[in-house]
Design goal:
Layout: H1 2-16, H2 27-43, H3 51-60, H4 63-67, H5 72-87, H6 91-106, H7 115-127, H8 133-140, H9 146-164, H10 168-184
Bound molecules: fe (ii) ion (FE2).
The site of fe (ii) ion (FE2) has 4 residues, from loops.
């Protein structure tokens, strides 16, 4: 299992380096690797979870975005499944993991889903609060005004926080980072002391 996951990971890293992928300069280092470390830490709190599934989901969940940005969700489900089977994962297992990613993408009733989906969704949501993720939005959209960019950041941060982050342990750990981001994007407190 570990070898297959490694093989898929290497495939994704290679795909990320394609200059046609808009986030090619930073996606592995500042999203996928941060997410991998974070999910493995959170798995320690849930001994019942299947770490291999979570680990594979880290490298799979944005697959469509990497290879076909404009049809990303559909692409993950179709090409992602095809690639998993091609690499050597069993069909039934591949379908299960693809279905987990689908639930994650829909962002509905995540808290009622499997622990692997809850860990992935929560960690994906807060991973954006680590490193330059929100600054990169500014870097990649130089034609927008700073007010628009601030608004975009707030919208993205709130969507992640409210729909994706379902595990209380994750929310608690990242609350301060979330509040600071909102402050940087215009939610200035009336009092500081
Ligand atoms: Fe992601």
């Amino acid at each position: 299992m570990k070898e297959l996951i490694q093989k898929f990971k290497e495939h994704v890293i290679e795909k990320c380096s394609n200059p046609e992928f808009i986030h090619n300069k930073w996606f592995v280092k500042y999203h996928l690797e941060i997410l991998e470390n974070l999910t493995m830490e959170v798995c320690d709190f849930y001994p019942e979870c299947d770490r291999d599934i979570v680990s594979l989901m880290v490298w799979l969940h944005d697959y469509g975005k990497i290879i076909n940005f404009n049809n990303q969700y559909e692409e993950t489900l179709t090409s992602g499944l095809k690639k998993l089977i091609e690499i050597g994962f069993e069909k039934q297992f591949s379908e299960k993991v693809i279905n987990y990613v689908n639930i994650m993408d829909k962002k509905v009733d995540i808290e009622k889903s499997s622990i692997e989906v809850q860990i992935m969704s929560s960690c994906d949501g807060v991973s954006h609060l680590v490193g330059p993720f929100f600054n990169l939005w500014w870097h990649e959209n130089p034609n927008k005004t700073f007010e628009e960019l601030m608004k975009d950041n707030v919208k993205k941060a709130m969507k992640d926080w409210n729909k994706k982050v379902v595990l209380p342990i994750v929310k608690e750990k990242f609350q301060v980072r979330y509040d600071i981001l909102l402050e940087k994007c215009g939610k200035i407190p009336d009092k500081f002391f």
